[in-house]
Design brief:
Rossmann fold, eight-stranded mixed beta sheet, 8 strands, 54% helix
Length: 293
Amino acid sequence: MKAMHENFKIKKSELIRVCMKNVLLFGYGKMGSSIARGWILKKLKFNFFIIEKESSLRKKARKDGFKAYENIDLLNEGENLNNPHIIFLAVKPQQMENTIKKFSSFNFTNLVFISIAAGLSFSWFRKKINKDIKIIRAMPNLPASIGFGVTGYCKSKNLSKEEDKVVYELLSAFSKTIYLNNESLIDSVTAISGSGPGYIFYLVEVLSQIGVDQGLTLKDAKILARETLIGSARLIESTNIDPKTLKENVTSPGGTTEAGLLLLESKKNGLYPLLNSTVNNAVKRAKELNLDR
């Protein structure tokens, strides 16, 4: 009886593995690895596999606990995984066409694609892979690597409720998620939150340098700039008070903050026109990356 019980346990374990969704992540660069680390943090019950052509990145993926292969052929040899459930595309737009070359042989009935490539539209993927594919366009950002990202996403209309649920579970594991009912909004999300960490990091860099210009040591200036940003962000999150109200709370009439904001809020040369131009320039670049033109 004991032997039969142990055999049952083995079969049950195998059944669980079969029922788990197979997720192929293509690309283990900065964003791909950030997303994967978010999955690790949440201990998701999926079978994850990494496809990465660069040996150093495959080594990194294996060190992180994933099975990693150079290409889809080697994956199939090692895993006999001819029909995955989710293909997560975390490669650059310029690399996408080469990445998807062998996808036409897949069974598309139960397969969902998730792409984080800026600019590549649903139409582009349908033309290049299959007109009936189920496709998600998502735009995460770098804080996904510590589970504090934010992702805007849109979806094709042919996903089932179960597939919707799986996609949401994957995306929300590394970020807060915002559903977009219009694909065109992805470019705006790319420019605001996708590229946004770069703007924030530059803000800290600039404030640090200004601190040095004012006579502070570089070490002290970096601490002051960094912790001011972190503390302010935590205050917004923990109080849920509108940022405009918080700004007014710290601004005393005739005080130093008011003096600084007088320039920063200038309609001609202040922060709004500068950031507006910044975001518009990023949106323009996202549209330029659309190869389906």
